[in-house]
Amino acid sequence: MVPISNNPEKPSRLKVFAPSVLTLLVGALLALFIFFLLQEHNQDQALLAFQIQAKDSIALIQGELNQSLGALSFVGDYFDTSEFVSRTEFSEFVNRTLDRYPAIHAISWNPLVKYSDLGTLITRAHEEGVEGFAVTERNPAGELVPVGHRREYVTVYYIEPIEKNRPALGFDIASNPVRNEAIKSAFESGQTVATGRIKLVQETGNQFGVLILRPLYAQGADIGTPELRKKYKKGFVVEVLRIGDAIQNALSGSSHENLKMSLYDLSAKPDEQQLYPAGTQYQSNSMSTKTAIENGNNAPVSSDFSFGTRQWRIIVQPPSNKTVSLGEIQAWVILFGLLLISTGFSFYLYRKQLSERLLRNSEEKFRALFEQSGGYCMIFDPNTPDGIPVIMEANEAACLSHGYKREEFVGRPVADIYDDEGKKLVKDRTKLIMTGKPFYAENIHVRKDGSTFPVAVNAKRIEIGFGKPQILTVEYD
């Protein structure tokens, strides 16, 4: 008999895995390279699309704001060309104007009234049917109270639409420092001016507003110098603009409503520059007002423009909830497709190499069995959950002596061919053999028909190929 080595030469795992691993790596690198090229292209396209949308949005917003200035100028011209405008005439004219400009919250006529004329103004309002008319201002608690003594007042006398702006009727806009600053500027310059941001008297939501003031002077008066303008000042037509309404109206129906807009008044104090959005919405989701303004030129798109002698800035940023574009989906599909192809081809190479190795391993097993053909030769697999080896291979002599066909014999637990005493010892003997020490024993085997016969067993641990260790037995009657 030719002895079987306890340490047969192991086939190199590197030779089996190297082609498939190399193919997988090359395929993965190529897939990632193509993926990143596509992603870069998609990002460039997305940035270009965003810049176009942002510029369109800025144009729409600026157009909406310019229209609001035009509407106020239209009403101011009406007063300039009229010797007297009654409350009814004002209501009819202004409501026709508001129908064309839905972003404007209100338009009012605010005459300049001296302290000595307050009583006359209040009496005339009562005679015109305005019940409860009074000239008011806000106290430190924000409540509307009768005005205190001042030299002059700029009082909301007519306002439309009256239904939603009634709380503002009679309010002295000069009582507020922000408004009063704009009033002085407008009277002195003769230009239409805008106030800084304010909380409107009639505001019920969470928006900042601004007042746009168009000064009026005595009809036919020469107002060519600041002194003459001061002498002949008569009052204002005032437009009330809610910033949020103006922006939303400008973008309504467009595809740009999902963009992140912010509007700043650069002419205001740093802590009062944010016009839109109001409240804490912007602060909690983006940079601070100061940082946003300082970084305006670095934002994706920003634009500075003049509005009523003030300098405003729009900053447009991409939406926070970015959607996945078709180009990005295509890039991911191509990536996974290429990875799948390279993985499949690598697996094919691996299976091919493994099959070749397994075939050689199988040949080695059979060669080992038949080289020991002087007895019953079997190979057991000890790596089972219950610890009882399973017959993996057997030569013809072993099959015949036990009364089985080969297909019946292979795959059986070895306990099936042992007597009761052998069954008790099989686990302990398996552990002993797996230590690598030579093993010899005399057993009683059981044939398929139940008859028994004695055998002498030589067993040893072997390693075939690069699989798990197995047990080779050579047995004799």
Task: Describe what you observe in this structure.
It is a single chain. With 477 residues, the protein is α+β, with helices and mostly antiparallel strands. It contains 13 helices and 17 strands. Strands 1, 4, 5, 6, 7 and 8 form a six-stranded antiparallel β-sheet that branches. It has a five-stranded antiparallel β-sheet with strand order 14-13-17-16-15, sandwiched between helices. Strand 9 (260-265) and strand 10 (274-276) form a beta hairpin. Helix 1 (13-80) crosses helix 7. The two termini are 16 Å apart. Residues 1-11 and 280-299 have low confidence and may be disordered.
Structural class label: alpha+beta
N→C terminal distance: 16 Å
Catalogue the unreliable spans: 1-11, 280-299
Kindly provide the radius of gyration, computed on alpha-carbon positions and rounded to a whole number of angstroms: 47 Å
Number of H/I helices: 13
- Give me the count of strands: 17
Silhouette: rod-shaped
- What does the largest sheet look like? 6 strands, antiparallel
Fraction of residues in helix = 40-55%
Encode the helix/strand succession as letters: HHEHEEEEHHEEHEHEEHHEEHEEHHHEEE
The overall pLDDT average reads 84
Strand content: 15-25%
